[in-house]
Amino acid sequence: MSSVGTRVLASLAVPVVLVALWWVVSSGSASPYFPPLPDIVEGFAETWTADRLRGDLVPSLVALAVGFVIAVLVGMLGGIVLGLSPRLRRDVRPLTEFLRATPVVALVPLGLVLLGPGTTMEIALIAFAGTWPILIAAVDGVRAADQVALDTARVYGLSPARRLVQVVVPGAMPQIMAGVRIAVAASVGTMVVANMLASGAGLGYVVIRAQQSFNILDTWSGLLMIGLVGCSVTGLVVTVERMVLGWHRRWRALDQRSA
User: Fold this and answer.
1) Is the CB of residue 76 less than 8 Å from the CB of residue 138?
2) Half-sphere exposure of 51 (CA within 13 A, CB side)
3) For residue 159, which of 8, 46, 88, 126 sits 20 to 30 Å off, Cα-Cα?
4) Do 191 and 204 meet the contact criterion of CB atoms below 8 Å apart?
């Protein structure tokens, strides 16, 4: 078996074992709050019909995708600008620290007043939550640029713009992608909170409505769907990361061999 296949099997081993353990342990459960996993799976198929997918899953995925893309763009561009300018970084640091420490839940009332309930407010909150991990990672990545590589590029006559594109940004990408992976969890969590508190549709709305009506199976089905969405989005980001940082992995492998 190839090394890639071995890694895939190894990454799937723990989830498979945990699900199997959950299936066995919960099979004899009589608690109304912790139903057996087979019942949850059966309820999942009944809950997520085509109409429910169109009415609740698709709007959540659209808001998540748009908000996350905005977060990546704003976080990367803002982080690069701040990383290149010590004075600007110093001047805006109090504001960025204040905004970064502000819980997204506290912004829901403000979002309702300014944007009203709906997709626009959800996108804004998701973008806000996802921006900060990426921005901080981009700042640190740019500040840690290899000075030897920059001096070499300067000696070879590369313009500042080319040094930024060909040296600084590629060198910062490993840290930026680490921030992107952190932002995935923040974005998915914000999507769910926004659905719960200020929306009439979406994954979070399904869970909170089922909980309020004491429909335990629907509650668990909604949580299961949220987990599947989170895992799928994370897997997509990891795939993109491997494509973007393929050169970095090859360079590290060569460096380890030479050592």
Assistant:
1) yes
2) 2
3) 88
4) yes
